[in-house]
Amino acid sequence: MSELCERYNVNVIRDEIHMDMTLRDTKHIPWSEVATTHWALITSASKSFNLPALTGAYGFINDGHSRAAYSHQLTQSDGLSSPAILAISAYIAAYREGHIWLDELRNYLSDNLNYVAQELNAAFPQLNWQPPQATYLAWVDLRNLNIDDDKLQQILIHEEKIAIMPGKIYGEAGEGFLRFNVGCPRSKVELGIQKLISALRKLC
């Protein structure tokens, strides 16, 4: 991708908010290590350390002129150039002291995702769903089941009493997928996946 950006002179704004959420032995490679054109890397500790209520994000811009222009624009916007001191303190504490907690979180998420794979593939072997290398979001490809997305949502909501985000909300490429969040206690993951399996069996 970096080579293509260089060939066509494309500048990149990269969202790496999930950069700390790699699982197992996966290594995250930041865009800054491979970039050959101007770039901006934007991220936050809110996903990794569950700090969204404190607000805040940070970024790196490699080109000095672009960085200065962005900083100037930021100072002209009310509030955006003045992050909450509590958020700054929390970010510093999280990155300095939170590595043990983060490692335990990643192990927990990995176990949750493995559970999803185990249960889904046992019920529907044709899915052959594999856990992702990072994040707590399970993008489940249901296209091999040839079911109707809208009918599945109706059953999930009205019969199983559970909401799982349909992939098509994110565009046409998401049709036939579900976005299942496992960033929660195992008991909720178990309940959610069993209700999903129940709904799918009603359509297959």
Automatic annotation (TrEMBL):
It is an enzyme of class 4 (lyase). Keywords: Lyase, Pyridoxal phosphate. It comes from the Bacteria. InterPro entries: Aminotransferase_I/II_large (IPR004839), Class-II_PLP-Dep_Aminotrans (IPR051798), PyrdxlP-dep_Trfase (IPR015424), PyrdxlP-dep_Trfase_major (IPR015421), PyrdxlP-dep_Trfase_small (IPR015422). CDD domains: AAT_like. Residues 2-195 form the Aminotransferase class I/classII large domain. The keyword RNA-binding does not apply. Its cofactor is pyridoxal 5'-phosphate. Its EC number is 4.4.1.13. GO terms for molecular function: cysteine-S-conjugate beta-lyase activity; pyridoxal phosphate binding. Pfam families: Aminotran_1_2. Belongs to the class-II pyridoxal-phosphate-dependent aminotransferase family. MalY/PatB cystathionine beta-lyase subfamily. This is cysteine-S-conjugate beta-lyase. The gene is patB_2.
